[in-house]
Amino acid sequence: MRRDQADDECAPTRDEGRRGFLKCAAGMAGAAAAVGLGGEAAAVPASRTAAGLRADGQLPDQVPFHGRYQSGIVTPQQLFAGFVGFDVLAENREGLTELFQRLTKRSRILTAGVKPQDEQVAKEAPTPDSLTITLGVGASLFDDRFGLSGHKPRHLKAMPAFPDDRLEPPRCHGDLSLQICAQHPDAIVHVLRDLARETEGLLRPRWRTDAFLNPSRPSGSPRTFIGFKDGIVNPDTGSAREMDRLMWVTPPCGEPEWALGGSYQVLRLIRFHIEKWDKLPVDRQERIFGRRKASGAPLDGEHETDSPRFRDDPHGTKIPLNSHIRLANPRTEKTDDSRFLRRSYNYDAGFDRSGKMDLGLVFCGYQQNPERQFATVQRRLQHEPLSEFVTPLGGGYFFILPGVRDADDWFGSRLLEKV
């Protein structure tokens, strides 16, 4: 989609920017999203998934803001999340630098637990609420406005429409992506209100969706609104070798030097056709996924963490050859490098104009190379049986900036100071 086309369809004028941002922060209707509902990966030992948790198994109240990588990526998932795509209104590189520095300053303060202005009269003590704020840049930021065209990450482009997509332009792309995660939903709104005040005239919201995790019942991975467990398996975030192979941009990747320590983010707003799905017998649903609905176990196993034995079932007698888990991750040596980290959330946007429930998934995937990983998996999932019951409507490709190293650093400093 061309930038001028996007502006015509979903963006207010610059004078309306602040009003649009505040309207967005007050609650634009959620979108729908995503790819396959779970590009599968190798099982992660429980000790690894606990990385970043307190000794009692809970998230720390304050997640460190500074570091080599941004928080909110391998951080254990908080209960609530907000995802926003923005267009940048700054007119030159100096304005863009000011925007990034303001975003850094406020993110550093808010994640430390200092109250935003709208809450300062409240008597309750401030709390960090396990807040993380994760900033990414879209391909459109590297046009001719800021002199960045020669510094774009190698694989960053506008998210293409795959064969089963019905992408809606107002719900796609953006110069920036913002992922805000916390343990309570009001924290998401407080952050957006705060950033609206601090970035007035520099940012305009393009799309937004709020999302949440469903609780595990009775245990194990949480479920989506189509009733199956999601995120059962992921790359091992406790393994530096695995992360350098699948997640982080490293020197062998051939990316610009400023991008080292970053990661590619794929956001997909997926709507579930709940009424149609609910008419299917459970055994049919299970064969579409390749897993048991009650336990999450593969159809040839007993527990959700069991690895499916595809080699022992070459004709798909137990797990159909076109099942979601088999297409998403065939578990072969050749397809191992297409795995990526999923950090998805559910959304509920009420009813649409026809009276149907608007439920779905905000698919969020992190990886080293979206063409080698996400797009490769998506092509394997093309026209899978599940595609009849889910429709990707929006989202985008973004590059998550390297982490803010210390109190003197800021988002995008290595990019903008070296250009």
UniProtKB/TrEMBL annotation:
Keywords: Heme, Iron, Lyase, Metal-binding, Oxidoreductase, Peroxidase, Signal. It comes from the Bacteria. One of its GO terms (molecular function) is peroxidase activity. The keyword Signal applies. One of its GO terms (cellular component) is cell envelope. The keyword Cell membrane does not apply. Its EC number is 1.11.1.-. Residues 291-316 are annotated as: Disordered. It catalyses: heme b + 2 H(+) = protoporphyrin IX + Fe(2+). GO terms for biological process: iron import into cell. Involved in the recovery of exogenous heme iron. Extracts iron from heme while preserving the protoporphyrin ring intact. Belongs to the DyP-type peroxidase family. This is Deferrochelatase. It comes from Streptomyces auratus AGR0001. The gene is efeB.
